[in-house]
Amino acid sequence: MGKPTVLLIGPLAHTDKEWDALGDKYNLKEFRSGTRDQFLIKLKDEFSDVVGIYRSNLSVAQTGPFDSEICSAMPDCLKFIAHNGAGYDNIDVDAFTNKGIHISSTPIAVDNATADVGIFLLLGALRYATIPLNAIRAGNWRGKTPIGHDPNGKTLGILGMGGIGRAMAHRACAFGMKIIYHNRNRLPSELEDGAIYVSFDELLAKSDVLSLNLALNAKTRHIISAPEFTKMKDGVVIVNTARGALIKESDLVEALESGKVASAGLDVFEDEPTVHEGLLRNEKAFIVPHIGTNTYETQREMELLVLRNLESAVDGKGLLTPIPEQKTKVNGNL
Length: 334
What we know:
Blueprint: E1 5-9, H1 16-21, E2 27-31, H2 36-44, E3 50-56, H3 60-63, H4 68-73, E4 80-84, H5 93-98, E5 102-104, H6 111-126, H7 130-137, E6 155-159, H8 163-173, E7 178-182, H9 189-192, E8 196-197, H10 200-206, E9 209-212, H11 226-231, E10 236-240, H12 249-258, E11 261-266, H13 277-281, E12 285-287, H14 296-314, H15 324-327
Parallel strand pairs: 1-2, 1-3, 3-4, 4-5, 6-7, 6-9, 7-8, 9-10, 10-11, 11-12
Protein name: D-3-phosphoglycerate dehydrogenase
Keywords: NAD, Oxidoreductase
Organism: Cyphellophora europaea (strain CBS 101466) (Phialophora europaea)
């Protein structure tokens, strides 16, 4: 029997050597660049024997989202997709699950770097950092920087207490913040580490700073919009390092302009790379362009985890970090 065939889709930044080494036991194929139409054609011939895929998050620029069209074109022998990214909202999970294709993502590897940026945004938003940064570069020293706030003694509400949320909580405790959180399910006490579980409405009402750290899906899209802002404290601070579409961006702009939201720290946006004009012009929005995992160490670890997932799965040991939806999914294929 010949070697199993695995396919790399999109670029590698730090692990070309490790990918090439897999050639000792797998037949390696690549689609590092191209168009969606070219990819669909190759699925019918050149890639018809692929059993496992390494999918770079950046490959969306070439293939577009892994939607039902892409899924239906996948060869019947495909069993595994190892996705590089903590978020995988550009994959139609239901379609691939129904076809019996297992998917992994890269939790854990992203936790520390994303939480670091979350704290950076939290502190920047509390201090209205955009205003003095713009002022000093314009030769105006501090400009009209308003007085900021300390994190000490404030309540940080975390919506989504997964690995990133817990890493965020751990860091915030060092600044003297009280931690409350809301999940679909309460965590075991050993994972709470002193954080207090509250209902969604309590989270909105009690948070001085609200950090979004949950996955984007049909149920969580626009989980924060105008009705939720009305339930929050006046002068609340919003931090989002997860996915932009968790917040209805136009409603956030209105809340910032009215003062309901005092400031926001954002790494993600609803229609990336486009940023709402209301966020660009409002200096109380402390914004960076989706750099949460933009470190050498984290990006290399993410790529290595994808390779480990792919190798484990193709070798018959299963994916190491399967997506949560497939851990409990019951159907004829999974």
